[in-house]
Design goal:
Elements: H1 4-27, H2 40-44, H3 66-89, H4 95-113, H5 129-139, H6 142-154, E1 160-167, E2 172-178, E3 186-193, H7 200-203, H8 207-214, H9 220-228, H10 236-239
Antiparallel strand pairs: 1-2, 1-3
């Protein structure tokens, strides 16, 4: 029989042997069975681009000038896209930058599509008849709705957006958002940009005139499509990064 000291040494030696065997076995496992995360995937998974306008820069004149549209789209919106991609490339950890620039990209992408040239089929009185019927039921008339929406737009302090949204229960509501905060928990139907860069070069401090004229170029066809759509939020993945 081994002494107590010898037994202790044998136990320790046996334990050490088990550890060495386990370590040797682990090292010999093919590297393909232990995937190594590619950290670069975080920064290169998604690259956002400036969407093209569905009309020419001068198509919304005289309500919105060619100069404003070109600057607003090619400079301001492009800046949001550029800074969003940079924030993502940096790991997406700065949630404030992600939300501001991501929201700027989302809001402008929606804004361009819910505008159309005055006098076009999309902006006519018969366009979006199903949506307009619901608006009439809610506000009493199209004119009363536009008055209420305009009041909300002119009541925005500083920079922001005004929206007609469809809530989860299907009900319509007029809401405003600050800075570039995107709509969450509801479907944006019509959005109006109330940042000064959207109107100042043309209207100066007369934003009431800008709001009055915006109704002449609302694309009710697109608005109705958004209202009737049951598809998921196209920007759901981007919003999840915030």
């Amino acid at each position: 029989m081994p002494s107590g000291q010898s037994a202790s040494l044998l136990w320790r030696g046996g334990s050490l042997l088990v550890v060495l065997v386990a370590l040797y076995t682990y090292i010999r496992i093919p590297s393909t069975s232990i995937p190594t995360p590619n950290l670069s995937d975080i920064s290169t998974a998604t690259v956002y681009t400036l969407p093209p306008l569905p009309y020419a820069y001068d198509a919304l004149e005289p309500q919105i000038s060619n100069q404003i549209m070109e600057l607003h789209h090619s400079k301001h919106h492009q800046t949001y896209v550029t800074n969003l991609n940079k924030a993502i490339k940096d790991g997406g950890t700065n949630k404030s930058l992600m939300k501001f620039n991501g929201g700027g990209h989302i809001n402008h992408s929606l804004f361009w599509k819910n505008l159309a040239p005055a006098g076009s089929a999309e902006t006519s009185g018969v366009a979006g008849s199903k949506l307009k019927a619901v608006i009439k039921h809610k506000w009493g008339s199209q004119e009363a709705f536009e008055t209420a929406f305009s009041a909300a737009l002119l009541g925005i302090q500083g920079s922001g957006w005004g929206w007609l949204v469809k809530k989860a229960n299907g009900e319509l509501e007029i809401v405003t958002t600050k800075d570039q905060d995107p709509i969450t928990g509801a479907t944006p139907i019509v959005g109006v940009d109330m940042w000064e860069h959207a109107y100042y070069l043309q209207y100066l401090n007369g934003k009431a005139a800008y709001v009055e004229n915006i109704w002449k170029i609302i694309n009710w066809k697109v608005a109705e499509e958004r209202f009737l759509s049951e598809s998921q939020d196209e920007f759901k993945e981007l919003k999840a990064m915030f």
